Amino acid sequence: MSTRPFVKVAAGILQCADGRYLMAERPGHKTLGGYLEFPGGKLEPGETPEVALAREFEEELGISVTATEPLVQFEHVYPERLIRAFMFRVKDWRGEPHGREGQKLVYARPEALPTLPLLPANKPILAALALPATPVGTPLLKAPIDENFLAHFERAVKAHRPGGAIVRCREAALSEALASGLLAIAGREYCPLFLNSGDLREPPRGFAGLHLPATTLHELDIRPELAGRVGASVHTQAEARKAGELGLDYVVAGSVRKTPSHPGVAPLGWQGFDALVRAAGIPVYAIGGMTPDDVPDVRRHWGQGIAAIRAFGLQEQP
């Protein structure tokens, strides 16, 4: 059993009108001095994360937070303590940020974040900022492919702007054959592609990453050494916890509601989804009966967003 003290912290992601994120440099006399962090601090006794965030922003930056949205929560082990971090998007505020405690403030473009000296705990935060809110899943693609599939896929992406797509295809030859057409659509619509091949196969060149089914997740002892992001489907707290411990970038958790595709499976409901979010400690998508209209509810439950197939106008192949 760990003897490290357990500390809850709340911090906020403030993005300026020009797209830059606000961070602060830790003072040299503190642990990890010189590293950059998103502003925030420890919860005081009796405080909620939201109240702690507002207090810390007033004390550190001299601004009043008027609107927030949960982004991601996770645990991180430092040598001297274990933290549970509650990260928020700061949606609105009053005042002009300035370092009230003498700390240096830094404004950084989103694309520069991975190159900066950030605190070691920031990996889930960077993933949550970079990942889309509503990735579309394709039907399970198999030969012979519907000749109209690419046209249906492009129409769905143009209509719904999902920000990403999980391509479900178990056949290596078929995924390679479809890759150029899918990538052309993805490039025009800014829709990064993730391959769900059912195994650890390297995705086609140009894909943004690999999505693993829960059955493959069970077989892993370390994060796959693959280019791009790696995510997984999870249905239990144990699976969600393992994905987080392996350092995956996200999970898709479900089914949250009853769905025609899983008629005999008891849905997680929001209470079950909350448990998987706490266990994973990385961005979590809700799937199963979800539509883009559910994104605000998912985010109130600390989820990244929703993943869906039928909600985006695609149907399973017969």
| The CATH superfamily title of the largest domain | Aldolase class I
**What does the main sheet amount to?**
8 strands, parallel
Enumerate the strands of the largest sheet in spatial order, edge to edge or round the barrel: 8-9-10-11-12-13-14-15
Helical fraction: 25-40%
Number of strands: 15
CATH architecture of the largest domain: Alpha-Beta Barrel
The 3D shape can be described as: globular
What is the overall number of helices?
8
Give the end-to-end Cα distance, rounded to a whole number of Å.
Answer: 52 Å
How much is the average pLDDT? 93
Query: Which runs of at least 5 residues are low in confidence (pLDDT < 50)?
Result: none
Specify the CATH class of the largest domain. Answer: Alpha Beta
Q: Please identify the structural class as seen in this structure.
A: alpha/beta
**Beta-strand content estimate:** 25-35%
Give structural notes.
With 318 residues, this protein is an alpha/beta fold. The protein has two domains: 6-121, Nucleoside Triphosphate Pyrophosphohydrolase (Alpha-Beta Complex); 136-312, Aldolase class I (TIM Barrel). It is built from eight helices and 15 strands. The protein has helices spanning 49-61, 123-130, 149-160, 172-189, 214-217, 237-245, 269-280, 295-300; strands spanning 6-14, 21-25, 36-37, 40-42, 64-78, 81-94, 105-108, 136-137, 165-168, 193-196, 209-212, 229-234, 250-254, 284-287, 305-306. The strands form three sheets. The protein has an eight-stranded parallel β-sheet. Helix 3 packs parallel to helix 4 and helix 6 (237-245) packs parallel to helix 7. It starts with 5 loop residues before the first strand and ends in a 12-residue tail after the last strand. The mean pLDDT is 93.
